Amino acid sequence: MNSNKNNLIAPDTRALIRKLSQNCVDETLFGEILATLLLMADEHKDRGDYKLIDKALKELRTSFQIFKPHREIRKVALFGSARVVESDRNYELAQKLAKSLVENGFMIISGAGGGIMEAANCGAGADNSFGLNIKLPHEQEANSVIRDSANLMEFKYFFTRKLVFIKESHATVLLPGGFGTLDEGFENLTLFQTGKCMPRPIVLLDHKEDDYWDRWLDLLDSLLLENGFASTEDRLLIKRARNPEEALNHIKSFYRVFHSLRYVREKTVLRLNTPLSEELLGKLNDEFQDILFKGKIESTGPLKEELKNQEYSTLPRISFYFDKKSFGRLNLLITRINQS
């Protein structure tokens, strides 16, 4: 237990925490959770805050239970307007993309409502998709595809729902939509740009005669890039697609060589599906030296922390001392690896 917390908790309570934590995978970490809850109960008497914490923890627990059997399958989060009707061409795009993704080994996560969300669940089918519904004052109802599925969750809070979307997905596709769609889009970009989520493909999809995303990108360019509030590399976090095939190919390409990322102390480790040649490593070091605070990009085996957790120990790796601020450039590094 954290020494500061330890000093605030009575010895008999500390003993109880140790006893309750004995059978946990990580006794120390679970003890920290219990200690935080007990300190909160002692220091804070607002019942409304207790209700918030209780509901948030229950929502997270339910999400862990639902997604745990499917953790090894990559998932794509699809966002878009609930107001899009079935005859809309973007509804058709979402449905076709979801179907193609499932055929290529992915699962789908939608917001469980109507419109684009319904199209996504319809294309994927109930067995290959998840619905993360939000309870609203006007009672948003889950669409008919996912309504009776064990993969449907009902959320009270947007923040827990958004956390689950990011935590459980490996790619994001945005179709035209309103405040909610744009909120999710900006959240995905912000989390990637600041390193608060793992690297992922972020795709903007609409049909070829729709200028929705063109106008949105023009706004980003004129307000953010021209004023220096974002970099040209940040703009590369976004992929524009005009049909399901382009969106699917970009998502598949992102994981062609790149597998996953892990931070281990000062090092950033990229796990790969195939090893990199010495020639390519040399080229990567020449092009991306600017994002390292020391050393160079090197091939390596699994680090001890990865071995301890049995994390993809058979996969080849590269590791380097990433500055943890140039995430647009990190995304470009992953692109270069995938193009090799």
Architecture blueprint of SSEs:
Layout: H1 3-8, H2 11-20, H3 27-43, H4 47-67, E1 75-79, H5 89-103, E2 107-110, H6 116-124, E3 129-134, E4 152-155, H7 158-168, E5 171-174, H8 179-193, E6 202-205, H9 212-225, H10 232-235, E7 238-241, H11 244-254, E8 258-264, E9 267-272, H12 278-288, E10 292-300, H13 304-308, E11 317-322, H14 327-338
Parallel strand pairs: 1-2, 1-5, 2-3, 3-4, 5-6, 6-7
Antiparallel strand pairs: 8-9, 9-11, 10-11
Helix pairs in contact: 2-3, 4-7, 5-6, 5-11
Largest β sheet strand count, sense and barrel closure: 7 strands, parallel
The run of helices and strands is HHHHEHEHEEHEHEHHEHEEHEHEH
Number of E strands = 11
Helix content: 40-55%
CATH fold field value of the largest domain: Rossmann fold
The helix-and-strand class reads alpha/beta
In CATH, what is the class of the largest domain?
Alpha Beta
Taken together, the total number of domains comes to 3
> What is the averaged pLDDT score?
94
Radius of gyration: 22 Å
Number of helices: 14
Shape type: globular
- CATH architectural type of the largest domain: 3-Layer(aba) Sandwich
Strand proportion = 15-25%
Q: Going across the biggest sheet, name each strand in turn.
A: 4-3-2-1-5-6-7
Distance between the termini: 46 Å
